[in-house]
Amino acid sequence: MQTDLLQEARRQAEICNACRYCEGYCSVFPALHAERAFSDGDLTQLANLCHNCRGCYYACQYTAPHEFDLNLPQALANVRQDSWEELAFPRAAGKAFQKNGVLIAVASVIGFALLFWAARVLASVGGEGFYAVLSHNAMVAIFLPAFLFPLVSIAVSLRRYWRHIDAGPFRPAHLIAALRQAASMKNLKGGHGDGCNFEDEDRFTHARRAVHQAVMYGFLLCFAATSVATVMHYMLDMPAPYRLFSVPKLLGISGGLLLVVGCFEMIRLKLRSDRTLGAAGAFGGEVAFIGLLGFTGFSGLALYAFGQTAATPTLLAVHLGAVLAFFLLAPFTKMAHGFYRLTALTADAGRSRK
To answer: What residues make up the domain containing 21?
Structure first.
């Protein structure tokens, strides 16, 4: 990992450790104040505990023009971004996406959409509904490896992270505690429960917490829709297409709406935020991921709405292209941050109970 980023984060963490004004703000500061010296692993753990709410920056008396020139949110964001690149598997892909996020996302969606369009033009597969465009077996052959790859990639990355921070033995109880925090987005509530200052230093809001929850639960609902449809297809002998008021469609539509609204609002908040308090050079990659996720939800809703029209082949090609691009790029986008944060919260739960 980059030594200069770690050294700057270490300098600022040592000053914060001496001050302790922000002790109750979030999970970062109790963990920070528990240490007297900070290893590279300690700094990586602190960075992944940080949710970049920025409340500590606006409360700090040692920011510029003070000679200490503290900007802890940016220092931790830089270390966090670097850790995602260095611990990614394969590492080269992590570095490539972070530096060229928008171009890779756009090229991937277009490329995969063209791939599916070619599959439709070159082969007459028959079938009903979407399977008249691309057979069920073809979808499974393409998407099963694409689904397994990010799982393996993220698992290897998190194993590297766990070892790097020297978290010790894993305990299911610690994971349960971490899941409770993640489900409520506890660390985005702010030090006094008034929200965070992500948009404006004088304005405390829960807007960022709300859009994170919309995106998280929207994604989980879409995943649940796919899982239920899989069970219905293979175990209950109820293949697609499904009616509007079926469980897969109700889950998918509600999840898609949450994704679209949440991603749109998240981009809006990012455009209004102060970029000097985030990771340097990461803005493009972050917006690319959010845009790709939101577009995946939007194209799915469009497919639901116009799935029985002449536009079906085109819409299906675009949607499946977006889904495939999302799966293959997920380990190297900000999608990975949710897994790292959950792992960091799990490790923190273990250390706080010692």
So the answer is: 3-84
